[in-house]
C-alpha cells in the first residue's frame, strides 16, 4: 500500500492491436505478484487512448483526460497505433507523447538482457553466439528535450538560398537530472559502470557541455566507473562487444537509437520492456512494452506477452521505490520469465507454438509457486 495506507491506483490502457492481447497477461501476472507479496493495487481499465476510441470520438483522448487520471500513481500501457485507420502521428501525438510531455516523464528506461533459451543474433570474435550474462544493460534516455524540439524552420523555400535549421536545446536542469538518475542506477548495480554517450568531436558546443556536466556529476559518484564514448563507435561496440556495457546514458536522439539497438541485440522485440519515469513522483509514470501494436499478427493471440509482463514488474519496483515488497515482486516476476524462457512454453517469435495466454499463465503460475 501507499504511505497513506491506500492501494496504489493504476490506470490500465490496453490501446490497440496486440496491446489488447498482451495486456490481460500483464494484468494476470501483476495481480498474482501483488497478491503474493501483499501489495494493494486498484486497477482501472481505460478504453480511450486507442484508435477504436478515436473512430467514435474523433480524438484519441477526452478533453478532461488529465482530470480523469487525477490521483493515479502509474499507467500500464499496451501499445497504440492502427495506421490502417488513424495516421501514426495522430495516434502517437494524441496519446503516448502527451503523457510523456504533460507528466514530465523525463527518464526513458530500457533494460536489455540476453536470456537463456533465446537465440542471440550476435556472435563473439570466435563466431560463437553470445551467452546470457554477456549482455545485460540498462539504457537511460533523456526523454523530454535535446534534439527533439520544434525550434527552427525552412527558410527561402524553393529558392537557391533555401536552408533549414532545427535547434537542439539542453537545459542544465534537464541534463543534470538524467545524468544523476543514471549514476544512481549504476551505483546500485553489480558492475557499477556507466557509459556516457556523446559526440563532442563533431557537435562542438552542446556535446562538450554535456561531457563537462557528466564529469561534474561523476564527482558525486566515486564508486561508479565512467567511460565516455562517441555515439558512432558506441553503436558499433553494442554489436561487437556488448559485454562492455552496464548502464548507458544518452541524450534524447542518441538514446532513442540505442534503446532500439539494445533490445535488437538480445533476440526478439517481444521481450523488451520500458519505463517512462517522472522520478520526482509529481506525476504518474508510464510502463509499456517497447514493441508497437503489430497489426501483422493481431487477432491470432500469438504475440509474446513477456515485454508487457516485464513492464508490469518495472511498475511494481518503481511504485515501491525499489524496496521491500515491490522489489521482491519484481524479482519474482523476472525469475519466472527466466524460467519460462529457459524451459518453455514459447510463442512463435521464439520458435514455439504456444499462444499469448499460455505464456501469461505459465509465468503467473511460477510467480505464485515462487520458482
Ligand atoms: P512502432 O509502434 O514503433 O511504430 P511498428 O508498428 O513499426 O512499431 P511493431 O508493432 O513493434 O512495429 O512490430 C514490429 C514487428 O515485430 C512486427 O513484425 C511484429 O509482428 C513483431 N512484434 C512486435 N511485437 C511483438 C510481440 N510482442 N510478439 C511477437 N512479435 C512481435
Ligand atoms: Mg506501429
UniProtKB/TrEMBL annotation:
Chain ranges of the Isopropylmalate dehydrogenase-like domain: 9-363
Keyword NAD: yes
Reaction catalysis annotation: (R)-malate + NAD(+) = pyruvate + CO2 + NADH
Entry cofactors: Mg(2+); Mn(2+)
Signal peptide: none
Matching SUPFAM superfamilies: Isocitrate/Isopropylmalate dehydrogenase-like
Superkingdom of the source species: Bacteria
Manganese keyword on record: yes
One Pfam family cited in the UniProt record for this chain: Iso_dh
Keywords annotated in UniProt: Manganese, Metal-binding, NAD, Oxidoreductase
Enzyme nomenclature, EC number: 1.1.1.83
Recorded family membership: Belongs to the isocitrate and isopropylmalate dehydrogenases family.
Protein name, per record: D-malate dehydrogenase (decarboxylating)
Organism: Sphaerotilus microaerophilus
Lineage: Bacteria, Pseudomonadati, Pseudomonadota, Betaproteobacteria, Burkholderiales
